[in-house]
Structure formats: structure tokens, C-alpha cells
Amino acid sequence: MSANLHLFSRLSIVVAISTIGLWGCDRPGSFSNTSYTTSVTQTTVTPKLPKVVATTKLLCDLTKQVAKNTIDLTCLLPGNTNPYTYQPTPEDKQAIAAAKLILYSGYNLEPNLFKTIRNTKTSGAKIAVIQRAVPKPLQIQEDGKIIPDPYVWHNVQNASRMVEVIRSNLAKISPKNASTYSQNGNKIKKEFTQLDAWIKKRIASIPETNRKLITTQDNMAYYATSYGLAYAGGLTAIPSQAAKNNGRIHTIFTETTTNPKLLKTIGKETKIKVAGRKLYTDDLGGEKSEAKTYQKMMTTNTRTIVEALGGTYLIFENHKIK
User: Fold this and answer.
1) What would the pLDDT profile of 166-188 be if each residue is shown by its tens digit?
2) Of these four, 251, 260, 271, 277, which has the most CB atoms within 10 Å of its CB?
């Protein structure tokens, strides 16, 4: 029995050695494989990206275009949402508190969110993108007061300035990606230059007598001023414009956030045609809309205006930009 036990022990040693040998053949590095496996695990761990919060979908889109996948971006507002009336959620406050950079509009575009941003303790930088990009905005009257018009992005040149503000502040929180942000920012601004020129040509194709932009909200002053349209915005402006009409006002434009009940009454009361397509004026549209990016929103709005006022619409073709 002792001999059998001795034989069994020798066989066990042989089997163990053979198993180690086979395992070593199967994976390069033999015993050193343990550290190799550990090394692979460490290198595949995703590094923590700097957390960035953008309030509106517009700011979120421009930030994505500049930063790509170099940041952990949280977008607070869904598409086609009025930032002026949006009510922040507890999740919004948590995201703001954890962010290294908070990008909001300024000029009281998102007043409820601004209060949350102002009152939330965070080490993150709080940047009013629109205010920094356009320090001398157009002025509008609201409730008897003269205030800044916050809808600056309807002029593409202002959107380029917004891109620059976003780029410079991203570079501060992620210096190693500064050159990438510069390259992306320059590419975007070149595309915006083409887009700006395209809009001017499309608006110029509208018969001169039809170049009047009448909207149910007063958010399109920058567009009208920049691209050569007479402008009157807001429901209070429509009756007076209708009284002066005498056939000279071609179309009234409504917005995607306009109360649908108003649409039926506007045309009847003014006896002016209401455009079949709506304008995106408060923010970008949802992910499934035709205005899910800034560029698409501007081309979509231009198409709506040009086709309704008798101009010639041609698809915007962005030339390849190196």
C-alpha cells in the first residue's frame, strides 16, 4: 500500500508539471503572464473624462462638435424645449454640482436653470457662453423694459463666436486636448462661413416685396437683421402688421413651441397665410427632427422661410474642409 501511495504521488507530480507546461504553451510568457494579464486590465480601464454640463441642446451640440469623445457631457434640456420656461430637476442639480465646466447661455435665456447654477456649490467654472460671445447684443422690449435679446445664434457669425468661447474653456479643463479643440473649432467655423454665405444667397432669391419675416414669437431678430429681412415678431405685433397689410405681408411664421390652438385663429383673424412649416427658434429639435444639429436647424429654418416667401431653395452642400 505504501508503494502504491508512493506511485500515486509521483504520478500527481508528473500531471501537475504537465499541466503547468501546457498552460505555459497556451499563453506566452509562462509565469510572467500574471503580470501581463494585470497590465492589460489596467490599460483597458477607461480614464475618467472631465465632466461638462451644457444647458440647452444648442450648447450641447456645439460642445459635442468641438470636444467629440474627450469629455463626459451631460445635456440638461431635451430638444424642442423652451429654455425660458424649463424647470430644473434634482438630477440637473447633481450634474451641475459634479461638473468641472458648466456652459449656460446667459442673458436670462434659461432663468430657472441659471438660479440653480448660481446657487449650486461646485468647483466647476460657470460660463455664460452667449454673453461672452456677443457682449453687445440686440435690445428688445419686454414688459416695458429694454433687455438683451438672447437669441444670438440665428446669426451664424455669432454661432462661430460661441464655438470659440466653448473651445477656449474646454482647453482650460483639458489642456492635453487643446490642439484637438483648435482643429475641430477651426473646421466648424469654416463650415459656418459657408453656411452664412449660403443663407444670404437663398434669402436674396426671395422677391424683394416678399422679404418680410412676421413671426408669432420675437426670437428671429438676429436672423432678419443679418440676412436682409424686414421683421416684426410677437403676437402683439401681428394685429398691427395685419392692419397695415393691404396685401404686402405674404406669410406669418409660427414656431415649433407655439400653442397649436393659436394657429387656427391667427390666419382667420389676420387673413394672412400661415406658413405650412414651423421655425425652430427657442432651441434645436429632438434627435429625430430635421433640426437636431445647429447646421440642420439653420438650413431647415432657411428652407421654411425661402419656400414660404417665394424664393428658390437649394440644398446646402458643405464643401470638404481639411
Assistant:
1) 999 999 999 999 999 999 999 99
2) 251
